[in-house]
Known about the structure:
The complex is a heterodimer. Chain A has helices at 9-29, 46-68; strands spanning 97-100, 106-109, 121-124, 127-130. By secondary structure, chain A is of the alpha+beta class. In chain A, strand 3 and strand 4 form a beta hairpin. Chain B is α+β, with helices and mostly antiparallel strands. Chain B folds into two domains: 4-97, no CATH class; 109-211, no CATH class. Chain B has helices at residues 4-11, 18-32, 83-89, 108-118, 147-153, 193-202; strands at residues 37-44, 52-64, 67-77, 80-81, 94-96, 99-107, 124-130, 133-141, 161-173, 176-186, 189-190, 206-208, 221-224, 228-232. In chain B, a hairpin with a 2-residue loop joins strand 7 and strand 8 (133-141). In chain B, helix 5 (147-153) packs antiparallel against helix 6. The chains are: A alpha+beta, B alpha+beta. Chains A and B meet through helix 1 and helix 2 of A and strand 1, strand 2, strand 3, strand 6 and strand 8 of B.
Amino acid sequence: MFRGKWKFLPGIIVLIMIVVAVYVFYLYRQGGTENYNPPAQKTDDPQMQILSDMTVLSGAVEAYYAKNLRYPDKLEQLKPEFIDKIPLETGMEKSFIYESDALDRYRITVSDPSRYGFKELFIENGKIIQK
Amino acid sequence: MGLVFPFASFAETPELTSKPLENEIMQILGRSIKCKNIVVQIRLSNEKPNEIKTLAVKVESAVLGGMVADYVTVLYEKPVIDFNQLKKAKKFKIISSSNSKAGILISKNAIERYIAGKVKKQVRISIRFSPPYAECFFNIPVSDIPPETLKLLDKYLKGKKLEGYAAVQMKAKDNALSIQSSKVIVNHFLIPDAIRQELQNSFKQVERIPILSPLRYSINNVTVQNNYIFLTN
């Protein structure tokens, strides 16, 4: 039936059908309730990670202010309402340094900015300072 | 006119004591803002006793369009209040401030109530916050889905409903909130990226964030936190 240049056609059709079937099966497998979770968010870059963690912490401090009209005295007060877990400094397993006068100012900083390639690295009242 | 106001205000700035002024502003705002409670916090400058260092207004359970925001807080630094308007017309108006910070906290319950008010009874939608994503679990009868959406999802239809999950992220700019899906599952099928993108484009994905007059703010940032969506300027 299939001769000459058409002799591979049945094989190609079967192959395409297999690929489609595998893809559909993959989409079906990925659609179970056990996959009802958001895409993983991870970075291997410590600089990106530290900036992301500090931004998340600062956002939680600002949200605390929006609710309480004062900044928290310590980061632990953000749990569990605004943040699930207080992140630690990437690769240091140390807490971020947090200072606040409760009403006007807060600052989140790292113990050793040079570790992340900065001379200075902190967030003060929501503004990130990186030099 | 804008130039005249500040001078008029300075000239008529009364001897400032924070408590009576706080109460006065609270009462005036209470007349124009639909909410459960308003807190006004004024801190005077130590160096210049007649200058307000910060003025914070917190509105609890504030009605923002069809949604009730848990907290709307605006902090003004060195605000200049129009005391003419405040005393004579009983209107609160900030003429200028050196800086201002706005924060709106909206809980998952507030969003669920807002959605429930917009859709039919048979539609079931629940929300979970998993920073930086908001997750949405849905069960929607096919009859309540727009035809253009159904067209895109026809391969995934089984039975008379769309049941599934979506992980979304949000962006805000100039008081407009847009939603972008990162993962969608419908009737046990993970929706491929190309179709998800088409779905995204077919929806009206922008919600306006109402401004609580007379407070002024422009929301340009949104983050998902443990219990709230947090909108800031």
